[in-house]
Amino acid sequence: MSQIELDVRNLKVSFSTPQGNFLAVNGINFQLHSGETLALVGESGCGKTVSALSILRLLPEPPAKITSGEIIFAGRDLLSLNAKQLREIRGNKIAMIFQDPMTSLNPVLTVGEQLIETLLRHKSLNKKEVLKISAQLLGKVELPSPEDKLKQYPHQLSGGMRQRVMIAMALACEPKILIADEPTTALDVLIQAQILELLENLKKETGMSMLLITHDLGVVTEIAERVMVMYAGEGVETGATKDLLDSPHHPYTKGLISSRPHLGSTREKGQRLTEISGSVPTPHQRPTGCAFHPRCDWSTEQCKTKKPLLQNTNQNRQFSCHLQPESI
Amino acid sequence: MTDKHSFLEVKDLKKYFPSRNTIVGSNTTPVRAVDGISFKLKEGETLGLVGESGCGKSTAARTLLRLESPTSGSVHFKGKNLASLSEIELRNLRKEMQMIFQDPFSSINPRRKIGDVLREPFAIHGFKENVSEAAIGLLEQVGLSSDYVNRYSHEMSGGQLQRVGIARAIALNPSLVVADEPVSALDVSIQAQIINLMMDLREKLEIAFLFISHDMSIVEYFCDRVAVMYLGKIVEIASIEEIYKRPGHPYTEALINAVPGMESGQKKQKLKVRGDIPDPSNPPQGCSFHTRCPLKEKQCEEMEPTLKEIAPDHYVACFLKEK
User: Fold this and answer.
1) CB contact under 8 A, A44 and B258
2) CA-to-CA distance for B221 and B212, rounded, in angstroms?
3) Closest CA to B242 of B229, B232, B228, B230
4) pLDDT tens for each residue of A206-239
5) Chain A residues with CB-CB distance to B under 8 A?
6) Over chain A, what is the mean pLDDT?
7) Are A11 and A69 in contact (CB under 8 A)?
8) Distances (CA, A) of B175 to A131, A274, B58, B90
9) What is the 8-class DSSP label of residue A105?
């Protein structure tokens, strides 16, 4: 087993709202190994983005509050660091890219000005060297004519190009970990394919680990080695991508896989898609017992009252369900 | 009875928008959002309209319904030319042509109760009797309980609200529904519910659909035929069976290949497309796809290919297929 780069243990994040406090993330555990891509998958409101933002302590506190847990990176608990120590890690050792490259780039600064900010902050380089490195970075993310791009503003670039700029910024300090929050969701399919390929190549080249946040199981298959499926603030199933998609152990994972039309699958005329009934519970009204039980086709009496514990089938596979995987 | 073939016929439809950054007096070229598209739709048939953002698929749909007035070209619906109709005649015909929008939160008035939203189509068209019962009936048809009539949109989830959007569209028993990315704003587990609902209603009410989407896997599932648009033009049109087995245009092939795969086992030689969709106000010479096409040849840069039939009812605009 390769080295553990990031270890998240029993992370709980609560938000205080006028309607009361609720747990957006309710005790999740995962490890990110060096050089691997781990995907956190789930629907809106499942807590995947909150988990990712907690790692770099980017959540606004308050209303957010990390109530318990540890996030171990390079031998230290990120949750115990002060603001100055955190700044040494953000953008330097752990970098992040976001869903919408238009809102995460500053519209009144040129691409170059934004790129050098990270480098100047973390490296002792003069401006000339920094500009040279910036152009190289833009070349690395396969942007045509990088020198010209440095002088352009975000609005002069297309969505795909902006996301490439974001990736270049994230990679500027050669981070150990890249957190990618829905990096291709705002992009067209053809551009999505290009960006995924780029991320894959860069990961191979630099040996960094990647934490990918997505709602799209298709994207997961393309680039992630392992997956954690999240539902209502909890990790419900974790495993190697292929293994997990081929034989889902949790009813929710199974539902997610089969509710998506498969390309090229032979269909009967008028055949319906398998759907998951109901809708995602709001964080204020999480069901008792197993949070998925009102939508689950296999739910029993004990699912309504008793929270299932995380079961290990073998070393790399975990799931939380009262039922045995053979029975679903 | 209308002839099945003349249910909807779009001929050389064009919609140009004036370029925004015009300096007074200067001669700038307009944005050719829809640049001469033609297709037919049979009664009860579903045609998918696919392409990347900015290819003109939504403008095409809006122009077709006369939500935008066309620059040129004609749309015949049940034998009537929509362009020649008066306001009143058009309004009467609108009962038969409805639309479902992408984002239910912005297409349903947040200040009105769901019941009012559903009564509105009847009010517009002068129906006065049993309207409240009809609204409840509509809710039941889309799988919502009758007490939703007193709710507001913010009290509902995206999936529930999209059901209301669908209920509103089928209120007046239309024979054509244009659905503009009806599931792309929804969560994965809800998408399947909405697709299933539309399939059920399509069968029950015999509705023809124009289904706009960028998701090739949903289009394959939901549609009978598909038209692929690129920079305002249709570059390929064929049946689902035909187009997914034998895509004729390199762009279509790239779109199908780009669907991130659950089927990673059978990853074929992928056709790779570089770069972005060009600026529609300044489209490339020749074949508009040549700037990104991995298979382009000399003539693609100079001449523009037109749609040719390469197999029965399979039309492609590509020189490579003409050989």
Assistant:
1) no
2) 13
3) B228
4) 999 999 999 888 889 889 999 999 999 899 999 9
5) 43-44, 158-161, 188-194, 196, 215-219, 221-222, 242, 245, 255-257, 259-264, 267, 270, 272-277, 279-280
6) 87
7) yes
8) 61, 27, 20, 15
9) S
Residue type, A225: E
- Enter the tokens of residue A305: 């009252």
> Residues A105-148: pLDDT tens digits?
899 999 998 888 888 888 888 888 888 888 988 988 888 888 88
Contact B189 A276 (CB under 8 A): yes
Q: A270, B193: Cβ pair inside 8 Å?
A: no
The answer to whether B156 and B109 have CB atoms below 8 angstroms apart is no
For residue B210, what pLDDT is reported?
95
Strands A209-214 and A37-41: parallel
Residue A123 has φ and ψ, to the nearest 5°, of -120, 145
C-alpha distances in Å from residue B161, one per residue of A45, A277, B112, B147, B187: 17, 15, 13, 14, 13
Return the pLDDT at B25. Answer: 55
Q: Percent of chain B at pLDDT above 90?
A: 52
Q: 3-state class of B265 per DSSP?
A: helix
Nearest-neighbour CA in chain A from B217: distance (Å):
5
Token pair recorded at residue B16:
């140009």
* Per-residue pLDDT, B262: 52
More confident residue, A158 or B163: B163
Q: Do residues A95 and A121 touch, judged by C-beta distance below 8 A?
A: no
Give B-chain residues touching A276 at CB under 8 angstroms.
189, 192-193
Residue type, B158: G
Sign of CA dihedral A299, A305, A309, A310: positive
Determine whether the interchain pair A192/B260 forms a contact, defined as Cβ–Cβ distance below 8 Å.
yes
What is the side-by-side strand order in the sheet with B176-180? B97-100, B176-180, B208-213, B46-50, B225-230, B233-239, B314-316, B308-311
Q: What is the DSSP string of B10-62?
A: EEEEEEEE--TTPPTT---PPEEEEEEEEEEE-TT-EEEEE--TTSSHHHHHH
Pairing of strands A226-231, A209-214: unpaired
| A217 vs B contacts (CB less than 8 Å) | 188, 262
Distance (Å) from the alpha carbon of A316 to chain B's nearest alpha carbon: 21
First to last CA, chain A: 30
Residue A74 amino acid letter: A
CA B305/CA B286 separation, integer angstroms: 8
Q: Cβ separation of A191 and B187 shorter than 8 Å?
A: no
Taking CA atoms, what residue in B is nearest to A188?
B52
DSSP letter, residue B187:
-
Out of A63-72, A96-105, B45-54, B233-242, least confident range: A96-105
Segment B219-234 mean pLDDT: 93
- Is the model's pLDDT at B267 over the cut of 90? no
How far is B49 from chain A, CA to nearest CA, in Å?
A: 15
Residue identified by tokens 């938000």 is: A15
- For residues A241-268, give the mean pLDDT: 82
Q: Report whether B81 contacts B73 (CB < 8 A).
A: no
* Contact present, B56 and B33 (Cβ < 8 Å): yes
CB of B273 closer than 8 Å to CB of B292:
yes
Is residue B260 reached through a cis peptide bond, with omega within 30 degrees of 0 on the bond before it? no
Top pLDDT among B153 and A273 is at B153
Alpha-carbon distance of B147 to B302, in angstroms, equals: 62
Q: Are B222 and B236 in contact (CB under 8 A)?
A: no
pLDDT over 50 at A155, yes or no: yes
